[in-house]
Amino acid sequence: MGARRASEDGDRRIGRRALIVGGVAAAAGTAALARDELGRLWWRVPGVEKPREQGAVDFAGARWVAASDANWRRADRPDDYGVDMVIVHVTQGSFDSAVRAFQDPGHKAATHYIVGQDGRVAQMVRELDVAYQAGNRDYNERSVGIEHEGFVDRPQDFTDEMYEASARLTARICARYDIPVDREHIIGHVEVPGTDHTDPGPHWDWDRYMKLVRRARTGTA
C-alpha cells in the first residue's frame, strides 16, 4: 500500500507539472506519456532555461564571441520555429566594429555569425536562438543571419577568403536544416520585406557565391 501511495503521489506531481506546460500531459491519460511530454516541453516553463554549453559553436570553423543578451532572444529552433532561410548581411564597418556593436545592449541587433575579409568566422548567437537581424520578426524566427566585413560600395572588400568561408558556413547551415540551396532561401538583407537596408549591395557576386555554396554543400553531403 505504501508503494502504491508513493506511485500515486508521483503521478499527481507529474500531473501538476503537466498543467504548467499547458495541460498536454494531463490530457494524455498515462504517467508514461506525461513524462515524455514533460521531457520535450519542460524548457517552456517560465524561469527554466535549456542547458547551453559555454562557448560551444554550431559551425566547426567558428570562434565563439557572445553577443549581448539584449540583441537576441532564447528559443529552441528548429523545434519551436522552423529554419528555412539564410540571410546575407554586410557590416558597413570592420569586423571588430561589428563585434562591438553586437555586444552593445543598446544596439538592439545582432546576427548569428560574422565573416571577416580574411575568412575568420565568429559566432555571436546560437543557431537555436532568434537573432534580431532582419528587421522582420517572421524572418528573424526562421533564418540564420551572416554578416560580412566590409562596405556595400567597395567591391574589393568581398575577398576570395570571405566568399569561400561564408559559402562553407552557409552550406553547413543548409545541410543541418535541409534548406534548398537557391535564391529563394539564401537571400540578402535588402530582400527582407519591410527593411530599409540595402546590403549586401550591388557588388556582392551572387552567382559566384551560390556556386561556392552548392560546391560546399555537395562536399558536406
From TrEMBL:
All residue ranges annotated as the N-acetylmuramoyl-L-alanine amidase domain in the record: 72-201
InterPro entries membership: Amidase/PGRP_sf, Amidase_domain, NAMLAA_amidase_2
Leading EC class: hydrolase
SUPFAM superfamilies assigned to the protein according to its UniProt record, in alphabetical order: N-acetylmuramoyl-L-alanine amidase-like
Recorded catalytic activity of this chain's protein: Hydrolyzes the link between N-acetylmuramoyl residues and L-amino acid residues in certain cell-wall glycopeptides
Keyword tags: Cell wall biogenesis/degradation, Hydrolase
Domain of life per record: Bacteria
EC number, UniProt record: 3.5.1.28
Name this polypeptide is given: N-acetylmuramoyl-L-alanine amidase
Source species: Streptomyces prasinosporus
